[in-house]
Amino acid sequence: MAGTIVQGNISTEEQLPDERVIDMDEKIRVLKPDDTQFTTMTSRVSSRVATREKVNWLEEEDFPRVVTGDAQTNVSTALNLGAGQGKIVAANDLLRNMRTGEGIRVVSVATDALVIARNVGNITAVALNAGDSYLVVGDAQPQGSDFPSPRYLQRVLGFNFTQITRTTWSFTGTDTAIELYGGREPAKEAKRKAREHKRKWEAIGFWGMRSFAAAVPPENEPRGTAGGALEFITTFKRDVNGPLTPDFFDLFLSDVFQYGTEDKVLFAAPLVVASMSKWNRTGMGSQFMAPEGGKVHGVKVDAFISGAYGYRVPVIVKKEFAEFPTTNKGFGTYAFLLDMSYIERRPLRDRDTKLYTEQQPKGKDVTSAEYMCEATYEYAHERAHGILFGCT
């Protein structure tokens, strides 16, 4: 084929496009770098192999010791407790009214109705109000007494199901053979898919839902889904309904820190952390402080904030939460206070994340591969964790 005749100076436009070498940076810029701190922390802190598609755990707490009663006069020897609370007390138990300070001794119990002795101790009896709370201080048995009736607080069963995630990619044989900027396929795509696969488990850890179906079309085989923090935490779920204030946050910490350990971490949307950054107060919580080494459980921590009980709470900014809507109290307004000692990642035996290559059908001129994982999470004692939402 004859070429085109050009007169005068030759510019870049006269050169054939395919003749010009492209100035291409080999480095591929990632819009959203790895932001899966929760998955990293649970993998490093506590991860135990599961041997079934359903994992179970037992939760226990100490015998309850607070009851509430109805209104009575200052000389009444009767006290009616809230429904079912009669099982908490027994004859010879000592109660302390937490409003008036009066000491009371239980004489006998019939379902939730007590016969009581008043003026135990030196605080004078006054009228009892409906809803007064009483601390069961302990029993005071007389000498030579008979064996008291035993009481038992049943343990609670917690459970979750394993979930199978598969992150796949496939290229024609020709595409894997040609030279590409940034490296050849499928290795280049495998790196991106690894990041995508990890993000799936990050999302499951926070937003996953617990369910199990015995037969799912078209194969009519079982399918489990793993519940995350949003599924389990119900007691301490607080609607900020505006900017997050120091007082609101401290009251939230006061509730959650009653239970579990001090090893709690706040995973917060940027909107929540931005609200916290505007705080200006003295004393505890007056400033953010970088932890020693800048990491907690192998994950970079953006700050510490002092909270109730005098503990320092690591704050991790979840940049990916900024993708979520903030209107109508969407997920972009959320923060999770999680007790990492009460959370455990449970990959099924021999089914933790693996790279499977040569997944293409026999005889087809393609290269197919996938990352596959079957795992779940344990969230023990949901009262050891908390959720804030509705921050503006």
Give the termini separation. Answer: 68 Å
Succession of helices and strands: HEEEEEEEEEHHEEHEHEHEEEEEEEEE
Number of helices: 6
CATH topology of the largest domain: phage-related protein like fold
Report the biggest beta sheet as strand number plus sense, adding barrel if it closes. Answer: 6 strands, antiparallel
Shape: elongated
Task: Tell me the count of domains.
Answer: 2
β-strand percent reads 25-35%
Radius of gyration: 31 Å
Which architecture of the largest domain would the CATH scheme give at its second level?
Alpha-Beta Complex
Sequence of strands across the biggest β-sheet: 2-7-4-5-6-3
- Give helix % range: 10-25%
SSE class: alpha+beta
CATH level 1 class label of the largest domain: Alpha Beta
Description:
The strands form 6 sheets. A 6-stranded antiparallel sheet has the order 2-7-4-5-6-3, with no helix packed on it. A 6-stranded mixed sheet has the order 12-22-18-13-17-16. Strands 9, 19, 20 and 21 form a 4-stranded antiparallel sheet that branches. It contains 6 helices and 22 strands. With 392 residues, the chain is an alpha+beta fold. It has helices spanning 37-45, 173-177, 187-207, 229-232, 246-256, 270-276, and strands spanning 54-59, 66-68, 78-80, 93-97, 103-110, 113-120, 133-139, 156-161, 163-172, 211-216, 221-225, 237-242, 264-268, 295-296, 299-300, 303-306, 312-317, 335-339, 343-347, 354-356, 366-379, 386-391. The termini are far apart.
